[in-house]
Design brief:
8 helices; alpha/beta; eight-stranded mixed β-sheet; Rossmann fold
Length: 250
């Protein structure tokens, strides 16, 4: 599931406002247009599909990838999007400091939850894209959603997350504002929801519910024969992401 980057990149450690040092990479260096890519729960910046997408987009944009707290090479503990919004905030500030005046954030699964949360709380994105996100983690019925709730909210589940996925979960994790509640607050920024019809973690109805709540500033794109998050990477997803970014960051 993992791959190495084969294009030139620059490692840029960045510290969050609550003191977590994130492992971050910058690819490409075309001025003024940047894309931040956020991985999902249990993943990292070296997920094969994420690496492929980042390298393709680096031909046209400055691309930033990083490991969320508690994942990959970044220390800390995961909260499934609650404190991770500070991770994205730190990378946004890194990109802004590097001269990227037009900026998009693209998140997969938990990373998409973080993108919506960031857009709602802080705003200022020129494009927000969320792939395979729940409208509400607590109402999602698919087997994978039930597993995530177990991994996050149960002591044995947190042990399993550490052993199976190498993710440290914060034991203080609790229910937070859902994407369904936050989506209307993103109205000042273009929001794009992308969902696979074969997603086994979050059923496609969750994406439709999220679109209805978000309103007219939100696009919804569903793909047949598309699984969950980074696993859905392929020519169709790449082409659609490029189309959205070209429109939003023009």
């Amino acid at each position: 599931m993992f791959a190495a980057y084969t294009v030139q990149n620059l490692r840029r450690p960045v510290r969050t406002e609550d003191g977590v040092l994130l492992d971050t990479l910058r690819l490409g260096r075309l001025p003024e247009r940047g894309v931040i890519i956020c991985h999902g729960f249990g993943g990292n910046k070296n997920i094969r599909g994420l690496v492929a997408l980042a390298q393709e987009l680096s031909l046209d944009y400055t691309v930033y990838t990083f490991d969320f707290r508690g994942h990959g090479l970044s220390p800390g503990r995961s909260t499934f999007g609650y404190r991770e919004v500070l991770d994205l905030k730190a990378v946004v500030e890194l990109a802004r400091g590097g001269g990227d005046r037009r900026l998009a954030a693209l998140g997969f699964s938990m990373g998409g939850v973080v993108v919506i949360r960031y857009a709602a709380i802080y705003g200022g994105l020129d494009s927000a894209l969320a792939v395979s996100v729940p409208a509400d983690l607590w109402t999602a019925r698919a087997p994978g959603a039930r597993l995530i709730r177990l991994l996050m909210g149960n002591p044995l589940g947190r042990l399993a997350a550490r052993c199976r996925y190498r993710v440290d979960v914060d034991p203080s994790w609790k229910r937070q504002a859902s994407p369904l509640e936050l989506a209307p607050l993103t109205a000042s920024q273009p929001l794009t929801i992308i969902q696979g019809e074969d997603d086994y973690i979050f059923e496609v109805e969750q994406a439709h519910e999220l679109k209805r709540r978000a309103g007219d500033h939100c696009r919804l794109k569903t793909f047949p024969r598309f699984g969950h998050a980074e696993q859905g990477y392929g020519p169709e997803l790449l082409a659609y992401v490029r189309e959205v970014l070209a429109e939003d960051l023009r």
